[in-house]
Amino acid sequence: MKALALSPAAEADLDYIWEHSATNWGLDQADRYTDEIRDACLNLAAGVRHGRPVDVRSGYLKFATGTHMIYFRDQGDRLDIVRILHQRQDVIFNLPK
């Protein structure tokens, strides 16, 4: 399994996703959904799941989970989770170059 690193922006994304989910669907659903996202990140690092190339940013991969997309870079021995964006968010604006 590769090492897994979440950027500060990805951690902030997860915090926002939890807060939004808790407000709209309750604490249990917020916990379940953010756990699902974290599990997807772990599965990517373990090689159980694989991402697809991102068309608008070279070197990035993406993986869909729920209504969110995990954007990451494969660094060989480490997987860097860069952002976790809702499917409606502007990727070009929110993903670093």
Give a written overview of the molecule.
Pfam families: ParE_toxin. The protein has helices at residues 8-25, 27-46, 91-94; strands spanning 3-6, 52-53, 61-65, 68-74, 78-86. It is an alpha+beta fold and 97 residues long. It has a single domain (3-94), classed as 2-Layer Sandwich (YaeB-like fold). The protein has a five-stranded mixed β-sheet. The radius of gyration is 13 Å and the shape is globular. It starts with a strand and ends with a helix. The model has no long low-confidence stretch (mean pLDDT 95).
Quick summary:
The protein has 97 residues and is α+β, with helices and mostly antiparallel strands.
Please name the defining characteristics of this protein.
alpha+beta; 5-stranded mixed sheet; 97 residues
List the helices and strands and how they pair.
Layout: E1 3-6, H1 8-25, H2 27-46, E2 52-53, E3 61-65, E4 68-74, E5 78-86, H3 91-94
Parallel strand pairs: 1-5
Antiparallel strand pairs: 2-3, 3-4, 4-5
Helix pairs in contact: 1-2
Overall CATH architecture: 2-Layer Sandwich
Main β-sheet description = 5 strands, mixed
Percentage of residues in DSSP E strands: 25-35%
The number of distinct structural domains comes to 1
Q: Could you tell me the mean pLDDT?
A: 95
How many H/I helices?
Answer: 3
